[in-house]
DNA sequence: AACCTGCACAACCGCCATGAT
DNA sequence: TATCATGGCGGTTGTGCAGGT
């Protein structure tokens, strides 16, 4: 049996709030407060709205000192930085910006910042992947392929979150390696195209929280750069320690989703350093 | 002028966490 | 300890508007 609905769905109004409803809710809350219960508030206030809807309306638009639109460059950087650290924890991100709501920040990211910092989802060829909206960040094409064994299993969101939690703090073992993702947003650090890269691979052991991450680039000459080894089934694995780019930061900034591996089925040779992409 | 398309934003839905009983 | 009600959150959808054809 499912959960009982929080309100009588048949008798509540949905959709845009009218100025009259706003005024009613605002007056009631300023006079009586929530009384610790949003569910019964609309009835007391004389509104035909769901309690959750009232709460959302108040928190996002009616409460004092709410700012709408006009995000500053500094706020862009805050959002970008925190997103790389913790992912889509919008309420936490919003808490770092007085007057901003999680909904506002989420919408702003989804409609503006994501396009600026992430490549388009469908890249069929390397030439397709120049994001027309990207300014200083021109990101390389990323091949998406299947992985074949446990060692290279696809990263799960849950694991990503754990990694974010770990990575967002100081590195207990090496403070000099502590992560400061701000440069990822503001510098050329992520712009591997300046090195002629046309392809990037990232990988990480998805079975547990790990302190390592991997990155490889394929340049215009077909050379794959990085250090690691070739796995017969899973393709090429690159690896370096904690001092490298944290997986989830790069993954979220570039791809916003699952891990990718550069794979070629005919590759089966161990290697170290640069090698010819076969 | 009418229609289409994409964008921005407001609001809703459903899941999970938390606190009260 | 178990159950339930409510709050909180993130993902998704709906709607209105602007610009293009």
Short description:
The chain is an alpha+beta fold and 278 residues long. Helix content is 33%, strand content 9%. It is built from nine helices and six strands; from the N terminus they run ααααααααβββββαβ.
Can you walk through the features of this model?
The protein is α+β, with helices and mostly antiparallel strands and 278 residues long. It has three domains: 13-62, Homeodomain-like (Arc Repressor Mutant, subunit A, Orthogonal Bundle), CATH 1.10.10; 73-117, Orthogonal Bundle (Arc Repressor Mutant, subunit A); 126-276, no CATH class. It has nine helices and six strands; from the N terminus they run ααααααααβββββαβ. The chain has helices at 19-32, 41-45, 51-62, 73-86, 90-95, 102-117, 157-167, 182-186, 247-255, and strands at 197-203, 214-219, 223-225, 228-231, 235-238, 275-276. The chain has a four-stranded antiparallel beta sheet with strand order 1-2-3-6, with helices on one face. It has a two-stranded antiparallel ribbon with strand order 4-5. The relative contact order is 0.11. The model is unreliable at 121-278 (pLDDT under 50). It binds a DNA duplex (21 and 21 nucleotides) through helix 3 and helix 6. It holds the Pfam family Myb_DNA-binding.
In terms of DSSP E residues, the strand content is: 5-15%
Uncertain spans? 121-278
- Shape field: elongated
Q: Output mean pLDDT.
A: 56
Question: Strand tally, please?
Answer: 6
Instruction: State the strand order across the main sheet.
Output: 1-2-3-6
What is the CA-atom radius of gyration, in angstroms? 24 Å
Count of spatially separate domains: 3
